[in-house]
Amino acid sequence: MRLEIRGMEKLSFRERQVVALKEIGYSNERVARRLKLSASTVATLFNRARNKGYEVVMIIPGDQLGLFGPDEDEEEQGS
């Protein structure tokens, strides 16, 4: 799985760090511990980033979802 943050050029380095961790489900407290910040600073950075606008896209290969098998290409070519 890959996480892509579109519009991240608008964000500061710290905002990018906070966004990445928050978007994968970390709580403010967990982000704060990881980045050695206070939870209120994390909340402020996250809100500031949201106001600047960004879009998170999660890229998950189909094989990780069990949607495509190794014979998929052969079946399509035979049709």
TrEMBL record:
UniProt cross-references to InterPro entries, sorted A to Z: Sig_transdc_resp-reg_C-effctor, Tscrpt_reg_LuxR_C, WH-like_DNA-bd_sf
Domain HTH luxR-type: 25-52
Pfam families according to UniProt: GerE
Protein name: RNA polymerase subunit sigma-70
Any one GO BP annotation for this protein: regulation of DNA-templated transcription
Organism superkingdom: Bacteria
Record GO terms (molecular function): DNA binding
